[in-house]
Amino acid sequence: MLAPSTEAELSAVLRDATGPFEIVGGGTRPVGAPVAATPLSTAGFAGIRLYEPGALTLVAGAGTPLAEIEAALAEGNQRLPFEPMDHRGLLGTAGEPTIGGVVAANVSGPRRIQVGACRDSLIGVRFVDGRGEIIKNGGRVMKNVTGYDLVKLLAGSHGTLGVLTEVAFKVLPRPDAAGVVMIEGLSDARAVEALAMALGSPFEVSGAAHVCAGPDGPPVTMLRVEGFAEQVDYRTARLQALLAEFGPSTVETDPVRTAEGWAWIRDAAPFHGTGGDVWRLSLKPSDAPALVAKLNADRVLYDWGGGLVWAELPPGTDARARLGRFDGHATLVRASAETRTRLPVFQPDPAPLAAITKGLRAQFDPRGLLNPGRMG
Length: 376
Known about the structure:
This protein has three domains: 7-173, Uridine Diphospho-n-acetylenolpyruvylglucosamine Reductase, domain 3 (2-Layer Sandwich); 177-266, Alpha-Beta Plaits (2-Layer Sandwich), CATH 3.30.70; 269-342, Alpha-Beta Plaits. The chain has helices at 7-15, 66-75, 88-91, 99-104, 112-115, 118-121, 150-154, 188-199, 229-242, 255-266, 288-295, 319-323, 337-342, 351-364; strands at 21-24, 38-41, 48-52, 57-61, 78-79, 122-128, 134-138, 163-170, 172-173, 177-184, 205-211, 220-227, 249-252, 277-283, 299-303, 308-313, 328-334. The longest helix has 14 residues, at 229-242. The radius of gyration is 21 Å and the shape is globular. By secondary structure, it is an alpha+beta fold.
């Protein structure tokens, strides 16, 4: 495995390359089609370069462990707003997630409905493209001099446009308290109605999920609010009154239990250690229950008010074939290498978008060195 420790070394490796590379961060989220190439590690680009709590700004090397960043932010009573998922339990991987891997996959958790995705908190990147050129875009003050918004473009590109070396984020304060309103026993359709009603309210819901089989057995619908303790008490009480038509509800405010409950949702814990393939669907919440019924899945979890659905199917099953055409997209997150080679992992792009994507890759990686085939 190659492991350059400076941008100059990385630039030389890519400039003089005669074959492709598989970009490796912590090795915890191998999502995408298998890549047969020389591993190229970003571990040499580790460490927090700048943290200014007063400016709500953090800059770190792409190879910095996510746990190191979260620990530093916790000391400043701050956090990454977008609540990044830990894929290790779902994918059965080891190692340490890195902040560059989070950006490369645009990893975003339940709080996305309130604060946006990873790319919405990302304000700067440094990377080396497939030609070996060192490129910087954004920073503490956004400035686009290339014609592309590379900060947004690199987030979710899965290492196919460049090797990230440094990332910069706007961070947010940690709230004093959190409360979770829970309703048991709702059908999928009624749960999505309840989630939509709560998200349409003025009570600033920061998590909206439904599991068809909760940790204690029955279906449970969960709504989270965060803020000062008095605000949380007021808003959870108002949510309970608003949702009374859906049946009795309870409120959990214990900080340990609320954190564990949302980590369970964030990390798709119902699928840990199970044997099926796991698909991730992004779709209109109102369409979700009917589409889930068509899937006939073994396990299902709704997040983002129903806009994100995790579904487990028997190994080798093509979820897109079961669903037919629908307004959204399906990503194969967990499956064997054979299945991830046979089926497109990411939703195939319409022809106009595919042409744009091909043009961008030709611009940033004209020799096809970076994670070739990862995204299809």
